[in-house]
Amino acid sequence: MCRILVSSTFRKEFLAIDTDSQRRIRQALEMLGDDPFTSRSQVDIKPLKDTDPKKYRLSIGTFRIVYTEIENEVRVIEVFSRNRGYRL
Q1: Is 8 among the domain residues?
Q2: Does residue 67 fall inside a structural domain?
């Protein structure tokens, strides 16, 4: 089981999202703590190419969450609408 830490950027972006989406994101993050690398029902995970340290994308509806896993900690970097795209 991994510990989940969120950045201040994530927290700010998360609070701007509607409450139904916030609930779905919370549920997905809880599942992410069990296994941050394997996609499964309601948790669509893909590694992002050419990132150091290795980053992953978690897809929840129209939202994307970018995170990394370091020393048994999942560090959530940001959440954004898929319309915005990725800024690595």
Answers
A1: yes
A2: yes
